[in-house]
Amino acid sequence: MTRPLPGAASHRVLLVEDDPGDVFLVQELLAEVDPSVRVTVAESVRAVVERNLLPAADCVLLDLNLPGVSGLDGLREVLQADPSAAVCVLTGLDDEHLGIAAVGVGAQDYLVKNKADGAVLIRAIRYAVERRRAEASMVRLREEQLVAAESVRLERGLLPSLLLDGSAVHGRSFYRSGRTRAVIGGDFFDAVRGPSGTVHAIIGDVSGHGPDEAALGALLRVSWRALVLAGVDEPQVLPNLQEVLVSERHERTLFTTVCTLTIDPAPEGGSRVLLRSAGHPPPVSLRPGPVSLRPRVGVPLGVLRDAKWEPEILELTPGWALLLFTDGLIEGRGARPDELLWQEGLIDVLGKERDTPMSELPGRLVEHVERINGGPLADDVAMLLLTDLAGDE
């Protein structure tokens, strides 16, 4: 049972007491110190539970000598009914050991009737409420921390480990979500060695920035990997991926830009690359570049059901390096305040980072772009850096 946190001043007291004289005395003592206190009286713990009085009380003053209960049983029943209740035991028994035991069970304080005047009662009530408030806040904070940590673990689990063992291609990745306190966004990437030895790679961007788009991006990435590893013919991968998008998207207007590569060794050395683009920014060839590739660009996935994505065949020389990225990298501020960085600005940045080792390039590239932007980039940023092992650093 979750109790709303009370305000700064507590004015709702539930007095559980069966002696009319003691009821009158407690009411008078409280009224002398704070006339705004509202006291509700119940003659037994059973009445408290049956009348559901605990949710409306900021503090409970509980007599231990009540009909139907003995010792600390009444306190246990109250706390069982509402573990978040702030309970002060108020009894005629001046027993230090009983008081310690009551606090151990869950009471906030132990008060002896003939030693508690109005000021003592009011102070005990307010302290009890504030302690319970602090405890509730700590519990909620801990719960939020556990949920956040679990979300981080789940999201990290959705980021891929590139499956390139046994191939002549080395892959490095970079990912940063544009959502606050999130690990993944709607951008996704992956690279795997297929059953025939061909290396397949993808980078994509689901339109939108919420958790639903992040989940959809993760689903598309996993679906793409399943299609590739199942040996689906390369021309059928994007049409199948579009079917997944259309069936799983939560809004009909959502679309996804994608760029895919298949990489095979070329007979004369180097590699032969088949590239398809569905509305996605083109990759950049870093060697001997940097220079943007110019593939045929089709419409994004999810726009036209009968869309075609024509391939572009590229011949790469030994030692090649390709950078695939999402548009979050190039949509920050450019060198001129009134212009975005765009592809041309990225080429300039890559030229300045020409001597940066490939192992450091993705992180250095983001740092460089953020300096130009004047601060962190607002959108998700994903990068996939693929290099020929023959010329890798």
Automatic annotation (TrEMBL):
Biological processes annotated in GO: phosphorelay signal transduction system
Keyword set includes DNA-binding: no
Keyword Chloroplast: no
Keyword set, alphabetical order: Hydrolase, Phosphoprotein
Molecular function terms, GO-annotated: phosphatase activity
Record-annotated Response regulatory domain positions: 12-128
Protein name: Serine/threonine phosphatase
Organism of this sequence: Pseudonocardia halophobica
